[in-house]
Specification:
A: 115 residues, mainly beta, 6-stranded mixed sheet, 4-stranded antiparallel sheet, B: 114 residues, 7-stranded mixed sheet, 0% helix, globular
């Protein structure tokens, strides 16, 4: 079965600084990978997804992620963080053999943005 | 408005009572899901449905019942609520084909069992 690890529970970044959130997955074949963002009291919004092809994926709000098969990683990046990016971020993996719709989520990383 | 809506948004109930959380989507998506979100666990899949009258268990189904008589509705019932079921519950949906790559989430239902 697939699994996802987000090793950082909290990350604090200064506004304007770059951001990288880590995500490692476990799955034997090519996974379907997603990043979601959750603002306080809200549902989850899709930032970006990787199914196949180019390993550098662009998403909404200036985010990007890179799929690295050799490292089983799908880290989320943003070159310049804005205060409005403060939220919780979830990495998720779907698998072809279980239907990509059944996602397994990581435990999340809470991003704090300092002035 | 189109979208996915959950009700109630907030609920306090007593141990042993039956509670039903409603989920309605207007996209005619074939797939619908129920997740629960708990601190330290992220989101865990409770049940999902691939189409009307087709449901299957997820990772944490015990204590929950679902039904899907209509494509647009996917209610989640806690038959006899326990304190361990205090959580935030998210309904989600997705279609097939090009629209099937994105799973859309509702805004959540906060349930407290006392």
């Amino acid at each position: 079965a697939q699994s996802v690890t987000q090793p950082d529970i909290h990350i604090t970044v200064s506004e304007g600084a770059s951001l990288e959130l880590r995500c490692n997955y476990s799955y034997g074949a090519t996974p379907y990978l997603f990043w979601y963002v959750q603002s306080p009291g809200q549902g989850l919004q899709l930032l970006l997804k990787y199914f196949s092809g180019d390993t550098l994926v662009q998403g909404i709000k200036g985010f990007e992620a890179e799929f690295k098969r050799s490292q089983s990683s799908f880290n989320l990046r943003k070159p310049s963080v804005h205060w409005s990016d403060a939220a919780e971020y979830f990495c998720a993996v779907g698998a072809l053999n279980t239907g990509f719709q059944k996602l397994v989520f990581g435990t999340g990383t809470r991003l704090l943005v300092s002035p | 408005d189109a979208g996915i809506t959950q009700s109630p948004r907030y609920k306090i109930t007593e141990t042993g009572r039956q509670v039903t959380l409603m989920c309605h989507q207007t996209w005619s998506h074939s797939y619908m899901f129920w997740y629960r979100q708990d601190l330290g666990h992220g989101l865990r899949l409770i049940y999902y449905s691939a189409a009307a009258d087709i449901t299957d268990k997820g990772e944490v189904p015990d204590g929950y019942v679902v039904s899907r008589s209509k494509t647009e509705n996917f209610p989640l019932t806690l038959e006899s609520a326990t304190r361990s079921q205090t959580s935030v519950y998210f309904c989600a949906s997705t279609g097939t084909g090009d629209s099937g790559n994105t799973i859309y989430f509702g805004e959540g239902s906060w349930l407290t069992v006392v």
